[in-house]
Amino acid sequence: MKIAIVNYGDPEAVRVRKMMLNRLAKTSLVCDHKHPDIVISIGGDGTLLTAFNKYQDQLDHVRFVGIHTGHLGFYTDWRNFEVDDLLDSLEHDSGQSVSYPLLSLDVTYSDGQAQHYVALNESALRQKTKTMVSDVYINDRFFESFRGDGLCASTPTGSTAYNKSVGGAVMDPKISGFQLTELASLNNRVYRSLGSPIILGTESQVTLRVHDDSDSLLTCDRQLVQWDVNQHHLSEVTYRVADQPIRFAKYRHTSFWDRVHESFIGGRK
Ligand code: NAD
Fold first, then answer.
1. How far is the CA of 161 from the centre of ligand 1 (A)?
2. 127 within 8 A of 217, measured Cβ to Cβ
3. Looking at the domain covering 103-241, what would its CATH class be?
4. What are the pLDDT digits (tens) for 43-53?
């Protein structure tokens, strides 16, 4: 089995990486950072997002494993002192995995150019300073004209991240779909949008058409999607469930709802 390691730059993550490389030498596992079977991230959820970003063109065969060096993460099941247990599980691996839906973004520009991205947590379209005005289409039919700070589309596993902070619902990752949440919408007698999050299924898509992109910001997880306004303008962004899910190597069961409880509620269980 071929392993790639992506680690955060802090001393603890670097220490765990070194220890893992030393132990790997005594196993049948080999390091291959180009075409791995398993990508191990060492750090926090942010490091797992970076690892996903790096290997997202190999989702058809790559599985991910997250080791957390700080507090419990949403994508990190293993603790820094469990490296030997993890290597043992990898050596006895029989391909077990759990998959979660991802978000596909198709970005098109005024000159017809197009770009495709995939998000593990979310993508947000917003304005830096001015009010964003965007027409929202669901399945190619006009739905509403949104005015406000912006809109956020999140995956089920991303629903506990930025989406939750902006009032979106926490979504069971067994549901294949995505969620669209408003960021500070303007709702009065003149302007009207739905005002609540929307959850869409696998067959649905949402298209956002901005009226003026001179002040727009488009994100895809930790990345900023950039374009040159002197060359072309952002025409539309279409969100749907990505064709391929992300797969995590599954050697033990960590309940999503236990994780939600532990992260946001705590105390008696
Ligand atoms: P980061 O990597 O430092 O993460 C910020 C926090 O979000 C960390 O505590 C991390 O554990 C948590 N987080 C990340 N993914 C999560 C998930 N799926 N469920 C629950 N918590 C999660 O910050 P960054 O590199 O700027 O951004 C990474 C992610 O952090 C973004 O994709 C976004 O979802 C989230 N974030 C949230 C807010 C907010 O809630 N206001 C602000 C910035 C970033």
1. 5
2. yes
3. mainly beta
4. 999 999 999 99
